[in-house]
Amino acid sequence: MGALLIPVIALVVVVVAVAVGAGAWSSRRHASAERVASPAHPTLDYRVPPGQDPAVLLAALAQEGFTASVDPRDTHLVRVSSLAGPDRDRAHVRSVIASVRTTGIDSGAPHDPGAVRFTDEE
Q1: How far is the C-alpha of 118 from the C-alpha of 122, rounded, in Å?
Q2: What are the average pLDDT values for consecutive 10-residue runs of the chain, which has 122 residues?
């Protein structure tokens, strides 16, 4: 009986640790999205073309060190944090978005983003 109890306790500890970690990760993502969505926070906003998953853009931007999230009210609007100011980050963010040549992370089709324009340029 004692030999069976140790693996069960270890499994419970692992499950609790994963649940706590997932909750903390979710909280950080939510706080980041709320901060970026704040009107007082400078952002570069990009409307994701139909058929492209915003997740591929978020991943590429994160890899380049940018904090970005989808707008809570419009999941096809990617908001990129620009604490240095939109004009200072504009060219770099534009090149990152233009470099994403797929519609999805796992099995996306090839995608040509064309001219990358931010909402303040439309």
Answers
A1: 7
A2: 71 70 55 55 91 93 93 91 89 95 81 89 84
CA 96 to each of CA 48, 56, 61: distance values in angstroms, whole numbers, following the listed order: 13, 11, 6
Q: Alpha carbon of 53 to those of 15, 44, 57, 90: distances in Å?
A: 31, 18, 8, 21
Instruction: Give the C-alpha distances (Å, rounded to integers) separating 117 from 4, 44, 90, 93, 95.
Output: 61, 10, 10, 11, 11
- Note if the pTM is more than 0.70: no
Amino acid at 18: V
Q: What single-letter amino acid sits at 102?
A: T
* Identity of residue 91: A
Q: Could you tell me the CA-to-CA distances from 109 to 58, 78, 113 in Å, in that order? A: 17, 20, 12
Could you give the CA distance from residue 47 to residue 63 in angstroms, rounded to a whole number? 20
